[in-house]
Amino acid sequence: MSSTFILTPVPQWLFTDASGNPLINGQMFTYNSVDKSQFKSVFSDIGGTLPYPNPIIFDSGGMAGPFYWEDDVPYFVQVYDQNGNLRFSIDNYTPPTAGGGTNVTNIIDINNLLINGQLFQSQNVSSVTAGTVYRIAPGASQGFPAIAANGSVIQPYISYSANGSGATKSINSINFALGDDTVESSPLAFTRFQCTGSGTGENFSDFVFPITPGAKSLEGMQLYFSFTGRSSSSSTVSAFFVQSGGFGTNNPATVSTLIDSYVLSANFNKFSSNFAVPSAVGITFGNCGADSVYLVLRMPLNQTSVVDFVNMMLMPTITPLASVIYPYQTADEVGARIFSEQTGDLKFCFYGLSDAITARPGWLPLNDSTIGSVSSGATFSNINTFPLYNLIWNSISNTYAPVSTGRGSSSISDFANNKTLTLMQSISSVMGCANPANVIFPIHALGELSGSDTVTLVKDNIPELSVLTSNGGGGTLQSLLLTDHAVVNNTILVNLQTTNVPVSILQPTTYTNWYIKL
Predict the structure, then answer these.
(1) pTM of this prediction?
(2) Are residues 86 and 147 in the same domain?
């Protein structure tokens, strides 16, 4: 019976070493599974006329292929590194066919490390001002403080910022036309960056995509980055992987690694690169914490340009590049990731406050306690409280969230100097909507505590009392205050006063415990 030579669904194979790096010069031996003393060739053509050498040697990216496998008898496959250490083996391997007639199933889990790579729920910016950080779309948020300092403009969302002066820029989300399937996974919209008037002095013009807290995260890993882009101005954009040492008064470092630069054309094309994440050794970490890693897509500097992009993707290099497409996600799937709780969010429950840490990891009880650094002596003293410390410090007056010994120049300096911050007074309080702009209702600042359970009535709280008096010839209606006294016709004395007993004005209330997100 003649043999058929089958190209597997994953035509090229990639192997890594124990650290996740490409298996450079790795060797793959292929044998007859029935008689393992016999080599059994794999071919580079569909006709089975061009056999690979045995062993097959992997290239500098740890890859080899395409592989056409003979379907007559199963294979026994062994993969070794260049030092002769066995990395992988499989016996009775039969190449899968289009009909799926095999007992071997390969599942490739494409995990995009850039949350919301299609910029779902993005916001337009009609006019960009240098030095302002703009929220473009929801993104990774856990552990990212809303702050720009120490060389980092990382935010708990996908953002854009630039320096320099004189440029005229806008950012818009533009829908694809119906029937336009030129971009894989058929996204609904793309992001357009447009500079119609070039400025001067620009060193960065960056879209920033947060990845995860911890500058050590992904250290030493091989990553694959891709995006789809075009430019009617044939502009060049660059991508950077950034390791931020966080924030503090001790000059934490931010290290940017160029992934690659890409020359865009008038039509949408997919661009991709492999790169190794550098070691975090030597990075100075801030004494306020919040170190992280993020990706930057840098727009053209000091020149007019039009750049459209979509399908931003970053993932571990574990599959052949040719087989990686942007994973389609429904709105619910994206929403589940981008609309999770963020620093400062509140929730209530019936857990006891003593169970706060175990019952609500990542949340603190809102019980008039204090937060601060490890050495601050606060009720909750941990470096991971800085994002919440920073949010409250910049959002709520010291009157309602006081800092010990008073507020200094910034949240960074106060946290680094071990000052405690008292959370807003909330015990036995009802939450209301702030009204700092005095719209319709009286002014109530964010974090303000007002009102009471009871009130003691005073003279000005008492309505007038109308008393009908008589002088023997007819009635006379007189209005008297309850705390006033009056003599009428020399015979009637009215002397009504309050008793100073507090009156309850408390609404019916069921009490719960409130928690605030770190």
Answers:
(1) 0.68
(2) no
Residues 83 and 231 in one domain: no
Q: Are 18 and 74 part of one and the same domain?
A: yes
Same domain, 156 and 262: yes
With residue 331 as reference, give the H or E element that holds it.
Answer: helix 331-338
Structural domain ending residue among the three candidates 69, 93, 117: 93
For every residue of 372-398, which 3-state class applies, written as one string?
Answer: ECCCCCCCEECHHHHHHHHHHHHHCCC
Q: How far apart are CA 302 and CA 28, in angstroms?
A: 50
- Number of structural domains (the chain) is 3
Q: State the Cα–Cα distance between residues 243 and 291, nearest whole angstrom.
A: 8
Distance CA 493, CA 190 (A): 84
Confidence category of residue 477, pLDDT binned at 50, 70, 90: very low
Which residues face 262 on adjacent strands?
Answer: 237
What span, in angstroms and rounded, lies between the C-alpha atoms of 409 and 185? 48
* Burial class (CB within 10 angstroms; exposed 0-12, middle 13-18, buried 19+) of 259: buried
Comparing CA positions, the residue from 270, 193, 264, 192 lying closest to residue 227 is 270
Would 82 be classed as within a structural domain? yes
- Summarize the confidence of residues 474-496 as an average pLDDT: 47
Phi and psi of 321, rounded to 5°? Answer: -60, -35
331 and 464 assigned to the same domain: no
Report d(CA 190, CA 173) in Å as an integer: 6
Is 246 in contact with 150 (CB distance < 8 Å)? yes
What pLDDT digit, counting tens, does each position of 39-86 carry? 888 888 777 888 888 888 888 778 887 888 887 788 888 888 877 777
Cα–Cα dist 168/174, whole Å: 19
Residue that the structure tokens 């940017």 belong to: 256
Handedness of CA 390, 394, 395, 400 (dihedral sign): positive
Domain limits at 85? 5-93
